[in-house]
Write a structure and sequence with these properties.
With about 375 residues, the protein is an alpha+beta fold. It is about 30% helix and about 15% strand. Strands 1-11-4-8-7 form a five-stranded antiparallel sheet. Strands 2-10-5-6 form a four-stranded antiparallel sheet. A two-stranded antiparallel sheet has the order 3-9. A hairpin with a 4-residue loop joins strand 5 and strand 6. The longest helix is centred in the first third of the chain and has 27 residues.
């Protein structure tokens, strides 16, 4: 039996154990790159990628979009004087805690019919939802309907209000919820365009990640404060539809899925195509966009847009993927042709490479 002193006397070594993995004896594929294997690869990639890219561009071009930047729109309300128009962006900054909302209207004309399913998006620029602290600033237990007086530390400084009451939902993401209300009016139909506020969030988010606490929402959220920048309580987000209220409000769910880039768009509404006059989409003609303006963007030099868009088999308008495929395909074809010419002109034949003798001249 080996004693402890004998074990301690054994010299220690950093040599790894004699195993296939640690001694790098595992089987591996080590291809030999020759002209016969590399050149066909370049040509296959080029021939395959270019048609795919053309197809992606084609489907992207089938999508119709109409974009309105309403950041600097003039209000229909009266302010300062009775005759001078003013901008809503100035109003919400100069009149904090304003009693009445700032309303602005923009008339526009669709240049052609928008056929198929129509979606309304809102777009923001220069808004960095991808900031690390911003992305972490949420409490997933709260969003699952598990309310308590203990709030995740990631929510600070948006975890408690001035009275030390827990905020639901807490965090910077919920506090900055997009609050503008957009409506469309069709002059041809002499009435509003019917918009649906449900079916805009991912089903996985709606059914799994966001849940309301059990019981009456007003009672369930009693004793909790609303986020600082909100004008409504959490249980007042949609009083007409209980399934779209509280933490399962789809506007909230869409906003909580943070964007990867500072310029982004998020789905806001769907056109109800079951209504008479809108079954085929939106017809060419004059429309009016009405905005209940409340979301400030001047502090970060941002812009706000309303986007009307159709879809294709591949989704919304995005030419980048098609262009990327075409560029990669063209590069591969050019490289393939260039290497083929070099191979034909400069390479040695197989016989010359095989028949090498000690007297074969060596050229540097």
């Amino acid at each position: 039996m080996t004693s402890i002193s004998e074990i301690n006397s054994i010299p220690k070594t950093k040599k790894p154990s004699d195993s296939a993995f640690k001694q790098q004896r595992l089987p591996a594929w080590q291809p030999i790159l020759t002209a016969g294997t590399v050149l066909p690869t370049f040509f296959v990639i080029g021939i395959a990628f270019i048609p795919v890219g053309i197809g992606l561009l084609y489907f992207s071009d089938q999508v119709k979009e109409y974009i309105i930047d309403y950041t600097e729109c003039n209000s229909t309300n009266k302010f300062r004087t009775q005759d001078v128009p003013y901008k809503c962006t100035d109003y919400i900054v100069e009149v904090p805690n304003h009693a009445e909302p700032c309303i602005c209207t923009i008339e526009f004309k669709l240049p052609s019919d928008f056929n198929g399913k129509i979606y309304m998006y809102y777009g923001l620029t220069n808004f960095y939802q991808n900031h690390r602290r911003y992305v972490k600033s949420r409490d997933d237990n709260q969003l699952l309907g598990k309310l308590s007086d203990e709030v995740s530390g990631d929510c600070g400084p948006f975890a408690f209000d001035a009275n030390n009451t827990p905020i639901v939902p807490c965090g910077a993401i919920a506090n900055s919820l997009f609050s503008d209300e957009l409506e469309l009016y069709s002059k041809k139909h002499n009435g509003p365009v019917p918009l649906i506020k449900t079916g805009i969030a991912w089903p996985s988010d709606k059914n799994i990640k966001f849940r309301n606490p059990e019981g009456n929402l007003t009672e369930a959220f009693k004793g909790y404060a609303k986020p600082k920048n909100w004008t409504k309580q959490i249980y007042e987000l949609d009083l007409k539809d209980e399934s779209n209220n509280g933490l399962q409000n789809e506007d909230l769910i869409v906003w909580m899925r943070t964007a990867a880039l500072p310029t982004f768009r998020k789905l806001y509404r769907r056109v109800n195509h079951t209504e008479q006059g809108f079954s085929e989409g939106l017809v060419e003609g004059d429309y009016i966009l009405t905005v209940k303006y409340s979301y400030p963007v001047s502090a970060f030099d941002g812009k706000k847009r309303m986007i009307l868009s159709t879809t294709s088999l591949l989704g919304g308008k995005n030419p980048f993927l098609g262009i990327a495929y075409i560029v990669v395909g063209c590069i591969c074809l050019v490289l393939g042709i260039t290497l083929l010419i070099i191979h034909i002109k400069c390479s040695k034949s197989a016989t010359e490479m095989i028949n090498v003798s000690p007297t074969t001249p060596y050229q540097e």
